[in-house]
Design a protein that fits this description.
The structure holds two protein chains of two kinds.
Chain A (H helix, E strand, L loop, with lengths): L6 E10 L2 E11 L4 E5 L6 H7 L10 E9 L2 E2 L7 H7 E4 L10 H11 L5 H14 L3 H4 L12 H14 L4 E5 L7 H14 L4 E5 L3 H7 L2 E6 L2 E7 H6 L4 H7 L5
Helix pairs in contact in A: 3-4, 3-6, 4-6
Chain B lengths: L1 H41 L5 H5 L10 H31 L6 H15 L2 H15 L6 H25 L3 H9 L4 H30 L2 H6 L18 H10 L3 H30 L7
Classes of the chains: A alpha/beta, B mainly alpha.
Bound molecules: adenosine-5'-triphosphate and magnesium ion.
Chain lengths: 253, 284
């Protein structure tokens, strides 16, 4: 991968067995912006976000057609190094999933995967990542403590730190705050606004206020298709499609 | 009508309760009776001569059996653990669990785990003692035991691996880890306590086994084994030998030693499972 990290999706169809979960998806996701994906449950938001770091490869009967480019590299090319792709495209899951090891080891996991062994170097990455994730102050005295001992919100920020430690260029977040209380949610939203100057961020959310608060662009999904995509203000204040309007005003979904 | 039905319900409930309680009391009583009986009969005869003395026909000793049992544990676990754990990793991490072949393999493994041990014994006898010409030997017995505990280890390791939440594997892959890194750094450490517990329980089975060993190691109670290729004996075989050759006190005393060993092993296994098993990954 070179040094452009915008995402271009062209004519993307995705099938689970015979079921088509994405239908002719086209979208341009810009660098240094937060792009929100909204839509009713089961419309394919997670499926779409997982196709950006090829996590769908883990699902046995999943097939995908079309092009997904990062910069000008098609990530579904045969020559693509999937591990490198996933290092560059970090992911935060809906439910915090820290590994049952120490806080330090969680954050150092990806750097170690990619060959960093020197303690001083790892220390630096761990501190930097935890600071970026706004967790450093709360855990600096117990880095060797179990990650499982943290609260849900802290665990989710740890997972963000763990993803950032891999030094990604793109950050995918699938409903990262849906399991969290309002205060933790606020912290993570703040965090995303801080991070967007360095990363391309794509976030799935069911929370309309969250989408309006933090995102620059919004894409509305319905039954595997993108119905509407544009600047967040205009999608929310002036939706072009009736279905988008119905959804954001809570008339269905 | 309704009243009567209600009364019948209450009666049924009472009968059921009395019956199940009675059954529980009887099974506990039987268990306790066996243990107390063996302890009373055996403990007075446990002494240094029996445990660590040199064997004479007047004063028998279980020293050869202690050493023999150690050899058997060493051989069988050294062989069965890597193969068993490896197979379980392959089955859970590298195959499609829905494939028909894998389902058949699972059924086969389960069936193997249920085969009577004397069948493994006759297999060991025919293969190692006769066909390969090992004669009676600890190594032949140890390998046979390894074959016997293999399916047990595969199954329980598989269970521990399947208990590791998918979200942790996904978390690892999403950080750019290879499959091998994911298995060694995330999956295996999470499953470690379960795997260790299953190995300890396998050791327990090796210690309690007798049918396999009667046919494979020769039950030489009075000589110290020189090495893996020597014939030998085990604690369980000594109980049988003493009991059937006019040493009832020594049989009971050896029984006590066996009992204590197996009970401690089970306690250790349970404790390990409790300490490391719970609360590690709360989400399923
Ligand atoms: N592994 C799978 N196998 C088969 N079908 C799947 C699989 N994963 C998802 N689907 C189906 O694909 C469709 C899209 O699912 P997806 O998880 O992407 O929805 P979503 O928009 O993320 O929903 P939610 O808001 O509830 O998370 C759904 O109909 C779902 O049932
Ligand atoms: Mg989803």
């Amino acid at each position: 991968m070179d040094n452009k990290f915008n995402i271009t999706v062209r004519g993307c169809d995705l099938y689970y067995g015979n079921f088509q979960a994405l239908k002719n998806v086209n979208i341009d996701i810009e660098e240094n912006e937060i792009t929100a994906l909204i839509g009713p449950s089961g419309c394919g938001k997670s499926t779409f976000i997982k196709s950006l770091n090829r996590m769908n490869d883990l699902i046995e009967d999943c097939r995908i057609n079309g092009e997904i480019l990062i910069g000008d590299q098609n990530i579904y090319d045969k020559s693509m190094d999937i591990n490198l792709l996933r290092k560059n495209v970090g992911m935060v899951f809906q439910k915090p999933n820290p590994f049952p090891m120490s806080i330090y080891d969680n954050v150092a996991f990806a750097p170690r995967t990619f060959g960093i062994k020197k303690k001083s170097e790892l220390d630096k990455i761990v501190e930097r990542s935890l600071k970026q994730a706004g967790l450093w102050g709360e855990v600096r005295d117990r880095l060797r403590g179990k990650a499982m001992g943290l609260s849900g919100g802290q665990q989710q920020r740890l997972c963000i730190a763990r993803a950032l430690a891999a030094d990604p260029k793109i950050l995918l977040m699938d409903e990262p705050t849906s399991a969290l209380d309002p205060i933790s949610t606020g912290k993570i939203e703040e965090l995303m606004s801080d991070l967007k100057s360095d990363y391309t961020i794509v976030i799935v959310t069911h929370n309309m206020q969250q989408a309006t608060r933090i995102s620059d662009k919004t894409a509305f999904f319905l039954l595997g298709e993108i119905i509407e995509y544009g600047k967040t203000e205009s999608v929310f204040s002036n939706p072009k499609d009736k279905r988008t309007e119905n959804y954001i005003t809570g008339r269905f979904g | 009508m309704k009243r009567n039905a209600h009364k019948r319900q209450i009666l049924k409930y009472a009968v059921m309760q009395i019956f199940t309680q009675g059954a529980l009391v009887i099974s506990l009583a039987a268990l306790i009776a066996v243990i107390i009986f063996i302890l009373i009969r055996g403990i007075p005869y446990i002494n240094m001569q029996l445990l660590f003395g040199d064997y004479t026909s007047k004063t028998p000793s279980i020293k050869p059996a202690l050493i023999g049992t150690l050899y058997l544990i060493l051989i069988s676990i050294t062989i069965a653990a890597p193969i068993g754990i490896g197979s379980a990793i392959f089955l859970t991490e590298y195959t499609n669990s829905k494939s028909r072949l894998i389902r058949y393999i699972r059924i086969a493994v389960e069936t193997l785990a249920g085969i009577p041990s004397i069948v493994y014994g006759i297999f060991g006898y025919l293969v190692f003692v006769i066909a390969l010409g090992f004669k009676y030997s600890l190594i032949g017995g140890g390998i046979t035991l390894a074959v016997m505990i293999l399916p047990v280890i595969v199954r329980s390791t598989e269970e521990s691996l399947l208990a590791v939440p998918r979200s942790l594997r996904e978390g690892s892959f999403a950080l750019g880890s290879s499959k091998v890194r994911t298995i060694f750094s995330v999956v295996l450490p999470c499953a470690a306590s379960g795997i260790v517990t299953s190995l300890i329980l396998a050791v327990g089975r090796v210690i309690s086994e007798s049918a396999v060993l009667i046919l494979t190691i020769g039950m030489v109670v009075n000589k110290m084994p020189k090495d893996f290729a020597s014939p030998g004996t085990s604690l369980a075989l000594d109980v049988y030998y003493f009991g059937s050759h006019g040493y009832p006190e020594q049989a009971a005393a050896t029984g006590v030693v066996l009992l204590v060993l197996v009970v401690s092993i089970n306690i250790i296994a349970t404790v390990i499972g409790k300490i490391y098993g719970k609360g590690e990954f709360a989400d399923g």
